[in-house]
Design goal:
The complex is a heterodimer of chains A (261) and B (335). Helices cover 74% and strands 2% of the residues of chain A. Chain A is mostly helical and 261 residues long. Chain A has one domain (2-255). In chain A, strand 1 and strand 2 (56-57) form a beta hairpin. In chain A, helix 3 (58-78) packs across helix 11. In chain B, strands 5-6-7-3-8-9 form a six-stranded mixed β-sheet, sandwiched between helices. Chain B has a four-stranded antiparallel β-sheet with strand order 11-12-10-13, covered by helices on one side. Classes of the chains: A mainly alpha (261), B alpha/beta (335). Chain A binds chain B through residues 2, 5-6, 9-10, 13, 16-17, 20, 92-96, 98-103, 254-258, 260-261, and chain B through 14, 65-66, 69, 72-76, 90, 93-95, 97-98, 100, 102, 104, 106-109, 111, 113-114, 118, 122, 125-128, 182-183.
């Protein structure tokens, strides 16, 4: 309860600060939308040459892309930890975090949130509606709940993986280039995994389960029954990965060495 | 009285990696890295009572910050026992930190972009401080630190002195019984320093707040602390009253004379032959300095003798400053 109240306190503060820099806000929202437009155009260009990709139609792929945008938007709003090593370990900002009575990871989530990324979710839903319309998909009453569940699961998968990568900084001081690489790998999750070979598919399912952010949960709404089992695994995988990442984080914090003055 | 801080055989070791030279060395480093274990804090023990103000001093790298970080739960000790406010700082960290206030002089607690009062408001929620508590307590803090006019300004627009006063107020929002100050007056001008010292004394008296202070500026310690703990290479080399440190290590008094007439060292030695005094002459300014033991009788006798025989223009009695004492200790090492 306390954490929820604090969360909204920070959100309110965030909005107040953002309102002060209106121009900034506009630029950011605009560049966000532009980035997504480029991605979408890429998909459209690919399907300009072919209407089928490994048995998936153009609209299905667009639908998956739209779905992927939603958990990804949530992830990038709340898990801006790509510069964790530099900002918190090297500069020693974690010192300050650790002297406050709130879980350290939660504080970082609060401090680093970027709510304008949430616009990505709006785009995502719009894309899904467009593609869903073309495919003639219906909506049943369970769909919104499952959508919520799958989106949360997807966000937790993403969050879990990136928190674990951030945790490397607790053990090794050297900067790594794993973060940007992970952002790239993350993008594979929004294409149907059966177009990849089995090794990649295995990795994307069980090791770096990015497939649970896009293709698996989206398959449910597309009515692809052969993937239903995976669709319903989404929240489970999310909780497991995020849980492991928190445990890793907690033991990492104990090893924190601090930065010299 | 209950102890606010109990530290027993506390130790913190860091692994320091050293890299080999050359390309060949770099390859070997990939496989096995050379490291030594460096003790930053080596088996220290001390206690601080509730309501005490303790100065924690030492050279750079003596282990001051490391100790403070272990006491505040930021670092996990390698071995030894730390009990602060009846808790183990790194184990019950989240519960523990709401009973302490921390100011790191070189790091800001406040949010850079938002107004000071917004930072306060957020911290008030973080520390679950009720409105009544906040109003009664913070009104006083804000008044004493004179930060009322700064409250609606964003932190990035404040000067260092203004920011530091706000930092101090922020650390006290939850009125903690224990306050850690790591270099709180670094880079501040004299007026702000005085204000901060006065304020610290006041909250110490009013709320019986325990204060542990590290600083390079010994005048802070002299003004505030009765007790000092001195650290060198991770070990405590002195723990006790500031006064007895002075008595033990002080080197007597220096009395400077300026005379109206021509005087030689021989004259002075003759006049004071009966007491144990060493005279020195500063050629340039014609100042004669007598070094004598710190003994009031002896000094007044000495002055009386000199004044009786010679016409004096100026007299100046100097005590060895704490700074000098500490420099002496570090130079010679404690024996």
């Amino acid at each position: 309860m306390f954490y929820i109240a604090i969360f909204f306190q920070y959100v309110a503060q965030y909005m107040k600060t953002r309102m002060q820099y209106r121009a900034d806000l506009l630029v950011e929202v605009f560049s966000d939308l532009l980035f997504q437009a480029v991605n979408l155009i890429f998909i459209l260009v690919v399907f300009g040459h072919t209407n089928l990709l490994g048995g998936w139609t153009r609209d299905e792929i667009i639908f998956i892309y739209g779905f992927f945008l939603v958990p990804y938007a949530l992830f990038s709003s709340f898990f801006n930890i790509w510069d964790f090593n530099e900002r918190y370990i090297v500069k020693g900002e974690l010192d300050r975090i650790l002297t406050r009575p709130i879980h350290s990871l939660f504080q970082i989530v609060l401090e680093r949130m970027e709510l304008e990324s949430l616009f990505g979710a709006v785009t995502g839903i719009a894309v899904m509606i467009y593609a869903g319309n073309n495919l003639g998909l219906g909506i049943s009453w369970t769909d919104p709940f499952l959508f919520f569940l799958f989106v949360t699961g997807g966000m937790l998968v993403y969050g879990g993986i990136f928190v674990m990568i951030a945790c490397i900084s607790f053990w090794a001081d050297a900067r790594t280039s794993i973060m940007p690489m992970m952002y790239n790998i993350g993008n594979y999750g929004r294409y149907p995994v059966d177009i990849y070979d089995s090794v990649i598919r295995f990795v994307l399912t069980w090791i770096l389960p990015f497939a649970f952010v896009g293709i698996y949960p989206a398959s449910y709404f597309l009515g692809k029954e052969e993937w239903f089992l995976y669709s319903f695994l989404t929240p489970v995988i999310g909780i497991v990965f995020f849980g492991i990442s928190i445990l890793t984080w907690n033991s990492g914090v104990k090893r924190y060495r601090g930065a010299g003055n | 009285m209950k102890d606010a801080i109990t530290v027993r055989n506390l130790k913190k070791e860091f692994k320091a990696y050293s890299s080999r030279s050359g390309l060949k060395g770099a390859f070997r480093d990939l496989l096995t890295r050379n490291y030594k274990i460096v003790p930053a804090v080596n088996n220290i023990s001390f206690q601080v009572k509730q309501g005490e103000m303790v100065g924690y001093i030492g050279e750079n790298g003596a282990g001051k910050s490391t100790t403070i970080k272990m006491l505040t739960g930021i670092l996990t000790p390698t071995s030894g026992e730390v009990i602060v406010n009846g808790m183990n700082p790194h184990k019950d960290r989240e519960k523990f930190v709401s009973t302490i206030g921390v100011v790191f002089g070189q790091r800001s607690q406040l949010w850079w972009d938002i107004a000071v009062q917004e930072s306060f408001r957020l911290l008030k929620k973080v520390y679950k401080v009720s409105d009544e508590q906040y109003d009664s307590h913070m009104a006083h803090v804000i008044r004493t630190l004179d930060i009322e006019p700064l409250l609606d300004k964003p932190v990035r627009k404040l000067s260092l002195g203004q920011r530091m006063r706000c930092e101090l107020a922020a650390a006290l929002i939850h009125n903690p019984p224990l306050l850690f100050l790591d270099e709180p007056t670094i880079g501040l001008d004299v007026l702000v320093k005085l204000k901060i010292r006065e304020f610290l004394k006041e909250i110490n008296e009013k709320y019986n707040t325990t204060i542990l202070l590290t600083t390079h500026d010994l005048s802070d310690i002299e003004a505030l602390c009765e007790r000092v703990v001195m650290l060198d290479e991770g070990k405590i080399i002195y723990d006790g009253a500031l006064k007895s440190l002075k008595e033990k290590w002080g080197e007597g008094k220096e009395i400077e004379f300026k005379f109206l007439e021509e005087v030689t060292l021989n004259d002075l030695n003759r006049i004071t032959a009966s007491s144990e005094v060493k005279w020195e002459k500063d050629e340039k300014e014609a100042i004669f300095t007598a070094f004598a033991e710190d003994n009031d009788e002896l000094i007044s006798l000495l002055i009386a003798k000199v004044v009786a025989d010679l016409k004096v223009k100026d007299i100046n009695i100097k005590e060895t400053s704490t700074e000098e004492i500490i420099r002496n200790i570090y130079d010679r090492g404690i024996s």
